[in-house]
Design a protein that fits this description.
The chain has 633 residues and is an alpha+beta fold. It has 19 helices and 20 strands. Helix 2 crosses helix 16 and helix 11 packs antiparallel against helix 13. It holds the Pfam family Syja_N.
């Protein structure tokens, strides 16, 4: 168990971190960076004399910048809910504290760069959606945690014995490192596990729902992978190691009193747990879609088929075997026409290769052209997707754990859903699939008629006439729409599109207007701000390590076109405005004047969009690329 509330004493030479409910004190030497534990209260008292304490709620880790190491702390938290007796928390505020008291040892350029690095880290820490728990592993699904416990003890051990062994293992050692966003920052704190707080990024929601005179807990947990993490247009597809951009594991959990089912003699305090896991991730090919001022840049798919195949196999080998998700049911929501056509065709071709089907005999590919099928607000046609995947539910199953923690059922495969962003269309589809899984779980508890058979009709007569169904329906809608907004905000910079369908069960005019607004904001952020956001993520995750003596990554100048073409455009518009306001002496001269400046304005606009890649905000740190490199992707 990790210390929950700590007092931080920031002395000139040391950081002294003292838990409110423990005897040991962590001391960090600000000059050497050495860390040590002491239980000598008198020595600690001498160190902190005259230093006021600051209450903090966890140590995020240690990050190396140009001026030296920096300590990341959790300043404020918010309670999200309780699950299986464990409190789950959200980071409300975090900060970064330098070991070094000044930057006088740096050159002027290095000191300026160090300040930019600090701004980048704080930018990333301000991103919503960091969660943690002091007592349970939030990075693992229930099935993964159960498997980890089984692998940690003798196969003859009882569930209680396995749980005891796992509980004795520090959280930072048993966490799934894919989803621990401060994994690299915690390296120096791992020797002090009660101070090392694993943090996941994504979404966590826990709601208590009235159910048959009792209460059940509904939880939705989305875990974003730290591998190939980033923002919308700068992280797409797979890298050569098979890691997918915007990979998210989403787990829906239902905690039900054992007496809520058909067994009236069950212990009323015992809880049966149900879990259903889905994943999403960028189209598992090597491709890119860098911003260039166009509303939707055309994706560029790598033509190196050997690299494509190797990355594809590495990705699904990791998913199927290493991560033990089992067989994959790929639900591809890409458009079969337009700018997504080539990407969709290459994806379909890869999944149908004999070499792929031989390696992954349980891999199933289902293409559902979301925009074509649901065009003209025909959202009821999503039922077609559920009909096509109904046989997969039969073989997939779900995870169920008895009150003592022993597994009763196992989920054998997962839905891997993608659209081009893995946000809006993906969230709608995953919500429907999760709702269908929940209906099956409730049916196995003896409540087959609680939800309508058609999961796209969430405003059904059953849910309207059944208070239990209505309460649970409302919770599901809100949880999945909030999940959509938070994941979209982290990756694309705005709330999700199409969230009105998830929230209300139907498309509305207000929802369409909201989507139009968010689309405009996305365009602006993705073109003129996301390079900064990508740098912030790379720096926080440790993908980029600043080094003294290197050339400043922020000193790169802009091309002449970046200032000349907007200047011509602005000056031309000014001259046209003046010409329209001032009365002309000769109409022929006025026509030539207007024609000249109209031509200048049109040419300037054409030049800006033709050289659009030079005008967007590009990453300066971990993703250095050139137009020559991109042209070969």
């Amino acid at each position: 168990m990790i210390y929950e509330v700590l007092s931080l004493f920031n002395t000139p030479d040391k950081f002294v971190i003292q838990p409110h409910n423990g005897l040991e004190t962590l001391i960090i030497d600000r000059q050497t960076g050495d860390m040590s534990i002491t239980m000598d209260s008198s020595a600690v008292s001498r160190l902190i004399v005259g230093t006021p304490p600051t209450t903090i709620y966890g140590l995020w880790g240690v990050l190396q910048l140009l001026s030296g190491p920096h300590l990341l702390i959790v300043q404020a938290r918010r309670h999200v809910g309780n699950l299986r007796g464990h409190s789950l928390w959200r980071v409300e505020s975090a900060d970064i504290l330098p070991y070094c008291r000044s930057s006088l040892h740096l050159t002027e350029t290095a000191a300026a760069d160090n300040e930019i690095y600090l701004q980048l880290v704080r930018e990333s820490l301000r991103t919503p959606g960091y969660y943690f728990s002091y007592t349970t592993d939030l990075s693992r699904s229930l099935q993964s945690a159960c498997r980890y416990a089984a692998e940690s003890v003798d196969y003859m051990a009882t569930p209680a014995a396995a749980a005891a062994v796992v509980d004795a293992t520090p959280l930072c050692d048993r966490a799934d490192d894919r989803f621990v966003w401060n994994y690299n920052s915690l390296i120096k704190l791992r020797r002090f596990p009660r101070f090392a707080l694993p943090v996941v990024h994504g979404f966590v929601c826990v709601r208590t729902v009235p159910f048959k005179g009792r209460t059940i807990d509904y939880a939705l947990i989305s875990r974003r992978s730290r591998h190939r993490a980033g923002v919308r247009y700068y992280t797409r597809g797979l890298d050569e190691d098979g890691y997918a951009a915007n990979f998210v594991e989403t787990e829906q959990i239902l905690s039900v009193p054992s007496s809520a089912g058909t067994n009236p003699t069950a212990n009323p305090n015992a809880q049966t747990l149900f879990s259903f896991v889905q994943t999403r991730g960028s189209v598992p090919l090597i491709w890119s879609q860098y911003p260039n001022l166009l509303y939707k840049p055309a994706p560029t798919v790598s033509q190196d088929w050997d690299k494509q195949f190797d990355a594809f196999v590495a990705h699904f080998s990791d998913q199927v075997f290493t991560r033990c998700y089992g067989n994959q049911v790929i639900v591809n929501l890409l458009d079969a026409v337009g700018k997504e056509r080539e990407l969709c065709a290459q994806f379909s071709r890869m999944c149908s290769l004999t070499e792929v089907t031989r390696r992954f005999d349980g891999l199933r590919y289902e293409h559902f052209d979301f925009h074509r099928e649901c065009s003209r607000l025909r959202w009821d046609r999503l039922s077609l997707l559920l009909e096509r995947t109904e046989p997969d539910f039969d073989s997939m199953g779900y995870f169920q754990a008895a009150p003592d923690g022993s597994p009763q059922r196992t989920q054998h495969s997962v839905f891997r859903v993608n659209c081009i962003d893995c946000l809006d269309r993906t969230n709608v589809a995953q919500c429907l699939l999760a709702r269908r899984a929940l209906a099956r779980q409730l049916a196995d508890l003896g409540y087959a008629a609680l939800f309508a058979n058609n999961a796209t009709s969430s405003n059904s007569s059953e849910s309207k006439t059944n208070p239990d169904a209505e309460s649970l329906e409302s919770v599901i809608k809100l949880a999945w729409s909030d999940n959509a907004d938070e994941l979209s905000l982290q990756y694309a910079g705005t709330g999700a599109l199409k969230a009105d369908f998830t929230r209300t069960g139907r498309r509305t005019k207000f929802g369409a207007l909201r989507d139009a607004y968010f689309s405009a904001v996305r365009y602006a952020r993705n073109n003129f701000y996301d390079g900064w956001r990508q740098d912030a993520i790379d720096l926080l995750l440790g993908n980029y390590l600043p080094e003294r003596g290197e050339l400043s990554p922020f000193a790169q100048g802009r091309d002449w076109k970046v200032w000349l073409l907007p200047s011509v455009l602005l000056f031309g518009l000014t001259m046209l405005t003046m010409g329209a306001l001032l009365p002309p002496e000769h109409w022929s001269e006025q026509m030539l004047f207007s024609l000249f400046w109209c031509t200048s304005v049109v040419l300037a606009i054409f030049g800006i969009f033709y050289y659009g890649e030079d005008f967007v905000d590009r990453p300066r740190l971990g993703q250095k690329f050139s137009r020559q490199k991109r042209s070969t992707v």
